[in-house]
Automatic annotation (TrEMBL):
Enzyme Commission number: 3.4.16.4
Role, per record: Removes C-terminal D-alanyl residues from sugar-peptide cell wall precursors.
Keyword Lipid metabolism: no
Residues where substrate binds: K231
Native source species: Cellvibrio polysaccharolyticus
Protein name (Swiss-Prot/TrEMBL): serine-type D-Ala-D-Ala carboxypeptidase
Length: 391
């Protein structure tokens, strides 16, 4: 049996407190006007809140498309992973093979028969989009590019990139080398969150190697100081592509734009998405993991009450000005008996906005409650019997 504890609560982000107030304003609130999402000149695109995963804008986000050098985000992710696991050192020297040296397309301009550090090659991949640097790292880590690509596909599957398949480490055109805007957003989020130290490399504007100074091809790094990554791509088949991320205040957005007509177009279309997201939406932290929401009766326990809360931070992406329209419905089990463990679910918290469920999470015990002695349990059982009898 369940009992509803409260409904129609006004959630206040200040201090992550929750105030029990009925939403009965004396004056009708002014409606927040959210314009339609921008329509981009691109084959597929997506805009998400990096913290919540909320999709703000999407178009053909699940269409499988060639990613070109956006592929290198996965290559650099695996290199960063190997460094953090201690299997590769950033100052390890990498032997440059003939295959790496001969790679066409974007190049770092490394030379066959020389040695280059892992760190410098990683900059060559991220900043200069060097196909030569990417192949050199793939061979160093896995012995061959083919073996490295197997790792890339395995990692994509583990990340939930269900529509992605890689044929090489660089994004060089190949039949079956495909992904989606949605999968690329998953990858970008992982790059940002899993390897924050190496993510800082994505905002580097220039890198010099072999006396050649090359700029980062992400034009937004030069136009918008809040943009700090990620990666560009281009082939005749893929068009001009860009995965970008920016942070303003407490909100980080990730945009994916695929199949535009030019370098300028991919930057301009990405900027449209980011501007729209930041202007009309916001990320709100409503509850923190471990914060006490309230307490409830425990039967047959050494303690008569237990504090409860949520086991994970609750953040939501909301249209600006809509926070006061949120409603929280908390339902707690009507009979809670000891023993209780920390984190044990005892109810649910549902947050809605204009009758749309935004999230539903378990409410958990924040402290353990041991079983009481025999006679105390008997007394509680008698009390519970009569409570149920007359309820």
């Amino acid at each position: 049996m369940l009992k509803k504890i409260f409904a129609g609560f006004l959630l206040c982000a200040a201090g992550n407190a929750v105030f029990a107030q009925t939403l009965t304003p004396t004056l009708a609130p002014q409606p927040t006007i959210i314009p339609s999402a921008p329509q981009l000149a691109a084959t597929g695109y997506l805009l998400i809140d990096a913290d919540t995963g909320h999709v703000i804008v999407e178009h053909n986000a699940d269409e499988r498309l060639p990613p070109a050098s956006l592929t290198k985000m996965m290559s650099s992710y695996i290199v960063s992973q190997e460094i953090e696991r201690g299997r590769v050192g950033e100052q390890d020297m990498v032997n440059i093979s003939v295959k790496a040296w001969r790679m066409g397309g974007s190049k770092m301009f490394i030379r066959e028969g020389t040695q280059v550090s892992v760190h410098d090659l990683l900059l060559g991949v991220i900043v200069q989009s060097g196909n030569d640097a990417t192949v050199a790292l793939a061979e160093h880590i896995s012995g061959s590019e083919e073996a490295f690509v197997d790792v890339m596909n395995q990692k994509a599957a583990l990340m939930g990139m269900t529509q992605t398949h890689f044929e090489n480490s660089t994004g060089w055109p190949a039949e079956g080398h495909l992904t989606t805007a949605r999968d690329l957003a998953i990858l970008a989020k992982s790059v940002i969150n899993d390897h924050p130290d190496h993510y800082a490399l994505y905002k580097e504007k220039y890198f010099v190697w072999n006396d050649i100074r090359q700029p980062n091809r992400n034009l937004l790094l030069f136009r918008d100081e809040t943009v700090d990554g990620l990666k560009t791509g281009h082939t005749d088949e893929a068009g001009f592509c860009l995965v970008a991320s920016a942070k303003r205040g407490d909100m980080r957005l990730i945009s994916v734009v695929m199949g535009t007509r030019s370098e300028e177009a991919r930057a301009a279309e990405s900027q449209k998405l980011l501007t729209y997201g930041f202007r009309y939406f916001e990320t709100r932290a409503l509850y923190k993991s471990g914060d006490v929401i309230n307490n409830t009766r425990v039967w047959g326990g050494e303690a008569n009450n237990v504090n409860y809360g949520v086991s994970q931070d609750i953040k939501l992406t909301l249209p600006r000005g809509k926070q006061d329209d949120l409603q929280a419905d908390l339902v707690i089990n009507s009979v809670i008996k000891a023993p209780l463990e920390v984190g044990q679910a005892i109810g649910t918290l549902t947050i809605t906005l204009e009758d749309q469920v935004l999230t539903e999470v378990p409410v958990v015990a924040l402290e353990p409650v041991e079983r009481a002695g025999f006679f105390a349990r008997v007394i509680d059982n008698i009390k519970l019997f009569f409570r149920n009898l007359f309820s």
